[in-house]
Every structure is written in structure tokens, then in C-alpha cells.
Amino acid sequence: MKKIEHIGIAVKNLAEANQLYSTLLNTKPYKEEAVESEGVTTSFFEVGESKIELLAATREDSAIAKYIEKRGEGIHHIAFYVDNIEDEIERLQQEGFKLLNDQPKRGADQKKIAFLHPKSAQGVLVELCEDINK
Predict the structure, then answer these.
(1) How far is residue 58 CA from its own chain's centroid?
(2) Model pTM greater than 0.90?
(3) What does DSSP assign to residue 99?
(4) 46 pairs with which residues across the strands?
(5) Mean pLDDT for the stretch of residues 50-60
(6) What whole-number distance in Å separates Cα of residue 47 and Cα of residue 9?
(7) What's the CA gap between 43 and 51, in Å, rounded?
């Protein structure tokens, strides 16, 4: 793992959260994107070498909608950048980590992604990210 790629924050209202984080970080989001497969709309802010990803549900059955219903708004996951997501998935499985998806899938911000089960990481949902076009 190379660096913290981003911290994902679940929000109820993306427009309101964009306004709040724009004020907090003194910058505008550089990208807003719908990820239909996950039932979310995302917004990204650059903070130094890392990013903040705001995630708002677009469907009641999405993981973010369920998360907010159960836990409320707040930090949802931490994402780490990796050079080769397939190799990292294999390495982590060999180390005994449970993954939510054995194969990477397309995520927001031109990334291939995979998630570790929170029970494998002391209650933290961990995302692995690799650039699609590297």
C-alpha cells in the first residue's frame, strides 16, 4: 500500500455537504460523479496528497443508505492506493483477510476498487484503489 488515497464520508445531502466541506477546506470539489452500480453520487475534494470523498445514496437499498440509517452520517471508509490491486487482493487473502469482493470492480474517480470486510480490519471498512489508466 502506497498512501492513503481518500477518506470516504457518508452524507445525507450531497449539496449541503459540498457547501460545508467547501467552506471547511477552503476549496471546491474537483469532481462529482454518479456510480450507478453502488447507488451513490460522490464528490471529491483534494487535501494535500489525499482526498475526501463524500458519498450520498441515490437508492434506498444502497450500502450508503443502509449505513446512514444504521449509524448516521460520518466516516464510512478509508481507502489506500495500491500499484496492483489484483496482487494486493491475493496477498491479503493469503494473509487471512476477508474481502467483500474477490475481484476488483470499477469505482469513482477512474479507479479499480475492492473492499476488505470490516471484521478483518478491527471494524474499519478498508478500500483498495488502483488507477484504471495508469
Answers:
(1) 15
(2) yes
(3) B
(4) 51
(5) 96
(6) 14
(7) 10
